[in-house]
Amino acid sequence: MLDRAVVDALFPSDLPEPEHWEQQYPPRRLPEGAKVTRLGPSPTGFLHIGGLYVGLLDRDISTNSGGAYIVRVEDTDQAREVEGAVEQFNRAFEYFGIVPDEADDRGAYGPYHQSQRESIYLTYVREMLRQDKAYLCFATKDELADITARQQATKLPTGYYGRWAIWRDKSAEEVQAKLDAGEPYVVRFRSPGKAGERVSFSDAIRGTLEHEANRNDVVILKASDQSPRLPTYHFAHAVDDHLMRVNLVIRGEEWISSVPTHLQLFDTLGFERVEYAHIAPLMKQQGGSRRKLSKRKDPEASVDFYIEAGFPARAVQYYLRGLANGRLAELPLDEALSSPISLDDCGVAGPLVDLVKLEDISADLVATMSGEEIIDAIKPWAQTYDPALVELLDNERELALKALAVERGADVANPRKDLRKWSDFRPAYGFFFPALFELVGNDDERLGGLDPKIVSAVAADFANNYQHLEDGQEWFGQIRALLEPHGFAPNPKEFKKNPDAYHGSIREAAQLIRVALTGSTRSPDLHAVARTLGEDEVLRRVRALV
What we know:
This protein is mainly alpha-helical. Among the domains are: 173 residues, Rossmann fold (3-Layer(aba) Sandwich); 47 residues, no CATH class; 99 residues, Arc Repressor Mutant, subunit A, CATH 1.10.10.350. 42% of the residues lie in helices and 10% in strands. The chain is built from 23 helices and 13 strands. It is elongated and about 110 Å long. 33% of the residues are buried.
């Protein structure tokens, strides 16, 4: 065991004692049963949709129990930090409505970036060294690699434990000699675990679990030649969860194997244990099997995918809540969003992320919104992802409202559902705006191969005799009037009987006008489109075929 004076000399002389931090971060005054949750994103990459999923659970459970939800950026691995990652976290939390109660700009238990909590960690590392619950390790990279190779060669578990922990039982004199030589070191936890020992613990989702006890002397403070002196995740999360008074940690099931280590750290530090809830990972269907949703392979794994596409936040919230608790997916959207999530109802099989289902949910939601609500929702999204659309909506707001009213509204039994996300607005509604519409020529492939001369003749006849009628049947009568003089059958059945006698049927004639007005072979009710465009614009588009 190192002399206290030797230990203290390794740290700043003004480093506070643990009591200082305990007083600065006192227990919270919260109702009985209140849950303090935290999300700990690492800025070594952009936020995975699974992170948003956990944040949604954290936010809901803390709110409904009268607790608090914290976002703590776990940035101790500064060498791998990705520029802009923290800003992306904040953008995602804001967009999807899961803004934390406490984060880097608010809260009494900060700082909320681990890189800014160096002195806190050093206090507790020093205390563990003083009590011989941790020790200095001067093992080199080559020595550690040799240990791992020999363990693998003899089929032993890899790690720094037992006889392989070569600095665990070194004398104070040997340690001092290394310090005097200025050799770099890490601080390792002196694990109390024994070979073959098992430990059981309770999981808020999975019940009682049993796992092999940790006997690995994990690093708790990184190399002494680094600045700032930062801890590893294992140690930092134990100190932070204690001082921030977190009592429920929701995280992925890949952390289950680390629970024995974490519980040892809590016990050794004299902290009350937190409750863990390990959720199943989000999955993707690939052929006949499922695999974890991968940020490297799957664009939809990134939260930015949903933001950039403009999925309405409430639709994504509803979908993710349904993945967490299947019963919520059976409720109407408003009811599902207001009903508490239950950890008891979280399954242990990974839920499948299905973009088709999400788009259906989103389309249903948008179909209930008024035109004004849709425009007001699109504009903030478009400010970032389609600035030109903002200007268009401002200049042509009345036209946009008319376009959005086509086959939509309270009096429509089956409203249009072609607007599933805000990025769909241009392809679904852009043709209504003259500034966005590209006129169609008489040889366009969308006209189905009709002879350009026939196209021109039909278009000229339609335009020369056009009446902007209010009654839909009368308006379509103008297309029927084109059939006989221009060689079109009155119906597909007649055309099928004698195809050589006709250029097509009424279907092809109507399609010609549809493509001229919308640029597509599929569109909403053609009469409604024409009424929305106005007479002058209808004639401009049809005459482009002549």
